[in-house]
Amino acid sequence: MALVTTLIHVIAGGADVASVLLATPMDEEAKLVLYALWHMVSVTLGFSALIFIRSSYACTKELLVTVKCIAFLWCSFGGIFLAVIAMQTSSGWWFKLPQWILLLPVGLLGFWGSSHYNSTR
Predict the structure, then answer these.
(1) Quick check: 38 and 21 in contact, CB under 8 A?
(2) pLDDT digits (tens, 9 = 90+) for 12-67
């Protein structure tokens, strides 16, 4: 699920968000900072997806801590979108900013999976 979310971010987000961002008439410096941040999110999502996948095959106690931290990040990212939606005065933002729909479940599943870690491995 994390890998699919990463691919959606890179492919759909690249077309719908990043390219639109670059075409806006905003200040060039601000635009490039936001574009760099979009790429930083891509790397974060992709790397964390790889960690989740790796931990599903053979997880050490040390890797388990990393999985829990990544799960926390994904839940936090989803929470940020919910907070931004909650601050809007107009309606309809639940599905205009649907990122939370994938971010929160991945984080919660990360916590769920880490809670089933067998310490005797």
Answers:
(1) yes
(2) 888 888 888 889 999 999 999 999 999 999 999 999 999 999 998 888 888 999 99
**Hey, what amino acid is at 84?**
V
**Residue 48, CA distances (Å) to 1, 22, 97, 110 in order:** 11, 26, 22, 10
Q: b/e string for 92-115 if b means 16 or more Cβ within 10 A?
A: ebeeeeebbebbbbbbeebeebbe
Indicate if the alpha-carbon torsion angle 25, 31, 32, 34 is positive or negative. Answer: negative
Q: Quick one: which of 73, 72, 70, 30 has its CA closest to 52?
A: 70
Q: Return d(Cα 7, Cα 1) in angstroms, integer.
A: 10
Helix 99-115 vs helix 61-86: crossing angle, to nearest 10: 150
Rounded Cα distance between 18 and 107, Å, is 24
Give the whole-angstrom CA distance, residue 109 versus residue 111: 5
Give the global pTM.
0.87
